[in-house]
Amino acid sequence: MDPYALKEVISTRLGIAVYLVEQTPISGLYMLGTSQGVLYSDAKGDYVVQGIMLDMAHDMKNLTVSGLREQRRLGLSQVSYAPIVLKAPDERHRVALFLGEHEARRRQLAPTLQHLQALGISVELYPVIEHAAQAADWCSDPLLQHAPFKAYLPQQECSETLIQNIGLSKWLGVKVLPAWVSSDGNLVRGYQSPEQLLKILDNYAEAPASSSSSES
């Protein structure tokens, strides 16, 4: 099976981006990480299945959720630029924060990020725009350039970076902003107070690898 060929077939037939192709425990069935979530296909792309796959022999491990986590880890590892990182002095967790214009304009943004750092959570910042045409406005908008948010915008190749973040957010399955992606690939949707986010991240860290619970 040629992973590249299968990507092309599925992308052409379904009109979606395919980022990841991996063999599943079932012979001849492949997991596809796509912009619409995880799908399963035969080697030729003639049959596609959407749903959840459980490994009944290993405590009902949710292989679909595991696939989504792997897709997010892979996506973040392949970012072609260095995101702005707000490093916690005593790091316990690291998260990627995807935020849109509404979050960018919130006056509470800077205190929230500082609070997260104080709790031991380092934050990688990924501003997300809806359309590529908005990139130039974001990079020149006086409100967005005003301190403190100016420090969180890409300082070099600003427009290009924001456009890349559109594709990255789709790759990671980010559909609601703000969104947080942990270093192990878990996705947390929506606004979370620093204390709530710390509790969620602690729970993820303590959860067994075979956990089949749904993501937040």
TrEMBL record:
It comes from the Bacteria. Signal peptide: none annotated. Residues 5-64 form the Disulphide bond isomerase DsbC/G N-terminal domain. Transmembrane segments: none annotated. Pfam families: DsbC_N. InterPro entries: DiS-bond_isomerase_DsbC/G_N, DiS-bond_isomerase_DsbC/G_N_sf, Thiol:disulfide_interchange, Thioredoxin-like_sf. GO terms for cellular component: periplasmic space. PANTHER family: THIOL:DISULFIDE INTERCHANGE PROTEIN DSBC, THIOL:DISULFIDE INTERCHANGE PROTEIN DSBC-RELATED. This is Thiol:disulfide interchange protein DsbC. It comes from Aeromonas sobria. The lineage of its organism: Bacteria, Pseudomonadati, Pseudomonadota, Gammaproteobacteria, Aeromonadales.
